[in-house]
TrEMBL record:
Record SMART domains: ANK (SM00248)
Stretches with biased composition (Polar residues): 204-216
Organism expressing this protein natively: Mikania micrantha (bitter vine)
GO cellular component term, pick one: membrane
ANK repeats: 236-268
Transmembrane segment boundaries: 477-495, 516-536, 556-582, 589-612
Pfam families: Ank_2, PGG
Region (Disordered): 204-225
Keywords tagged on the record: ANK repeat, Membrane, Transmembrane, Transmembrane helix
Protein name: PGG domain-containing protein
């Protein structure tokens, strides 16, 4: 904002560099023309030396124009204009010409300016510093020319031979090719830059060959130098393809892979491939292209890439990759499944499905409203969510069907959801001990550890997790067993219908339903007490490694089984009580009582049976790591 005279402030854009010069020049000309003061910067403007000292009106007007110009400059630009000016009484025309000199020049002017600078360097520096300053100077010009995509200026700088395309011209170690790949999508300019990487070497090699003996074998030119230029890395260890992947320059990636395929498999300082870099920067077109070009990723690297794609929720690309190379992922399929489970999208609910359905319809009487709804961001987000869900489901179904059809390692098919079952399966030490030489059992390794000590150390976390899970489970079931014991004990004392006062015999003692009640209540009481004792013994166990093989699983199996029996018997006793007290021998009411009694029993069995089944299978019917059945007895 500058003072425009007449009490007005004028807001002007700051001139900060070459990219804003032409816009700034246009607005400044408009400002001066509106005040009829354009002549102060024109080529016919009078200098101060041609104006009399008594002409104060011209001096004031020139100072006003000069103030406008200087006020619209950034601090950096202002220093470039004011400091080099030897005369303190410079005019607005002097400032205008200085800015034109700085920002208005063509390629030939650049060459002339650099030649003048070179002459000045030759006069001021020693021979050793000359080369260094010339190289630094040309490196800066090469950097600017590459940013401007000025191939003529690039060729001129390279022809001076102070700097080459293999020299690092930025503080982070980028070469001119790095800069071109990272800032330019002009395929023609990039192709010309890659050709320049070969041209200089060809010329130098041809000159050298002409000086050598004619009997010398011919030298293949261009290929070696081209590879050296393409192999150049910056301070982060990134090659040219890394840079193209980071910025998403697919055109540059195509050109680079046409020249050298091995760039695709090289890693930077963080051990990241170009595909991983493109994926982490979410350049979908680039990493999809790079994936189609590489069929030689190792299993671990390819699996990590697939996990990253799934984590970025690009299920379409993940399915394309898996469908082509499923065999290379099978050895690490557990990490892939874990990534799918952690990132699996939610299905559209009822209202979301209806929103998409309504948004896609074309009703005549509400055409405008529904058309705007269809184009809204909300509908687009729902459609994208539905698309992600379909592809994720398709990906998971394909992997699961492949696992089912192939014979995969046991770790893929048997993934246990709690630490106790996993600890029960980890019986490798006992199995190895059963067939190795007895002397090997007590031998020590380099750190003075026996096999048992190493096994204990490696499974320490598993033992801790198993103990935590067992205690939490036992505490929950202990409360349930205690409640059942209390209920059935009270029911045994206060029998349904009461007792006869004279002899103390229950009123319904001779009825079949009462006999069922008494038997069920007795079974429920004893089994609940047994279950309670089993869970209490788990809470007070030592939780050693050997306990996880049989003792702890056995106690948990007995506790769960007796708890199920006691719960079932308690419900049967309750149903018999209802029939005795309220039904009055009406057999029709017996059916709903039986149906309602079976409902909680079926729920309990459905919820607890998988756990009991896994416990029994892993404890008594398990196979060891080497395929030999366990010889341990059932109890």
């Amino acid at each position: 904002m500058v003072w425009g005279g007449g009490g007005d402030w004028i807001d002007l854009m700051k001139l900060s560099g070459p990219d804003t010069y032409f816009v700034w020049q246009m607005q400044m000309r408009c400002l001066l023309q509106s005040h009829d003061m354009l002549g102060f910067i024109s080529s016919h403007a009078l200098g101060k030396e041609k104006v009399g000292d008594d002409d104060m009106m011209w001096i004031r007007s020139d100072a006003l124009v000069k103030g406008w110009i200087l006020g619209s400059l950034s601090q950096q630009t202002l220093e470039k204009v004011v400091k080099p000016t030897p005369n303190k009484d410079f005019t607005a025309k002097d400032v205008w010409d200085k800015l034109q000199t700085i920002y208005e020049y063509d390629d030939q002017e650049i060459i002339r300016r650099e030649e003048n600078t070179e002459n000045r360097i030759e006069q001021e520096s020693t021979e050793e510093n000359k080369q260094k300053k010339k190289k630094e100077h040309d490196a800066g010009i090469l950097y600017d020319a590459t940013l401007r995509q000025n191939i003529f200026l690039v060729e001129y700088i390279l022809s001076r031979k102070y700097v080459t395309l293999r020299d690092k011209i930025t503080i982070n170690g980028n070469t001119a090719l790095h800069v071109a790949v990272g800032t330019c999508n002009n395929k023609k300019f990039l192709k010309h830059m890659l050709d320049l990487a070969i041209h200089d070497k060809q010329k130098s090699l041809n000159t050298k060959n002409s000086e050598e003996s004619n009997t010398a074998p011919p030298v293949a030119v261009g290929t070696k130098d081209k590879q050296q230029s393409l192999d150049m890395r910056n301070s982060e260890g990134s090659n040219l393809l890394h840079v193209a992947a980071i910025v998403g320059n697919k055109e540059a990636a195509e050109l680079l892979l046409n020249e050298k395929k091995d760039l695709l498999f090289e890693t930077d300082n963080e051990r990241q491939t170009p595909v991983a870099r493109a994926l982490s920067n979410m350049h979908k077109d680039t990493y999809l292209y790079l994936m189609t070009q590489g069929d030689e990723f190792d299993d671990i690297g390819g699996c990590d890439l697939l996990v990253n794609i799934i984590s970025s929720k690009d299920y379409d690309s993940a399915f394309s990759l898996v469908s082509k190379r499923i065999d290379s992922f099978l050895s690490h399929i557990d990490s892939v499944l874990m990534a799918i489970a952690q990132n699996f999208p939610s299905k559209l609910n009822y209202w979301e499905r209806n929103s998409i359905r309504c948004g896609s319809r074309d009703f005549t009487f509400l055409n405008y409203n529904f058309e705007s709804l269809h184009k809204s961001k909300f509908i687009e987000a729902l459609e994208e969510k539905e698309k992600n869900y379909k592809y994720a489901k398709k990906l998971l179904s394909f992997i699961c069907s492949t696992i089912k059809d192939k014979r995969l390692p046991r770790s893929v098919h048997h993934y246990y959801n709690n630490a106790l079952l996993e600890a029960t399966r980890q019986n490798a030490y006992e199995e190895v001990e059963s067939f190795v030489c007895p002397l090997n059992i007590i031998q020590k390794n380099w750190f003075g550890e026996t096999p048992q000590m190493v096994f204990t150390k490696q499974h320490k976390d598993l033992v801790i997790d198993g103990e935590k899970w067992m205690k939490e489970t036992a505490q929950s079931y202990t409360i349930t067993a205690a409640l059942i014991t209390t209920i059935v004990f009270a029911a045994a004392i206060t029998v349904p219908g009461g007792n006869k006062q004279e002899i103390g015999i229950p009123v319904f003692a001779k009825k079949t339903a009462f006999t069922i009640f008494a038997a069920s209540d007795t079974i429920s009481l004893f089994t609940s007490v047994t279950s309670l004792l089993m869970f209490l013994s788990i809470l007070t166990a030592r939780f050693s490694e050997q306990d996880f093989l049989f003792r702890l699983p056995r106690k948990l199996i007995i506790g769960l089984t007796t708890l199920f029996i006691s719960t079932t018997a308690m419900l049967v006793a309750f149903g018999a009580t209802l029939f005795l007290v309220f039904c009055d021998n009406n057999q029709d009411i017996l059916i709903p009582i039986v149906a309602l009694t079976c409902l909680p029993i079926a729920c309990f069995a459905a919820l607890q049976f998988p756990l009991i089944k896994d416990l029994v299978s892993s404890t008594y019917f398990r196979r060891n790591v080497f395929g030999k059945k366990s010889d341990d007895p059932f109890y």
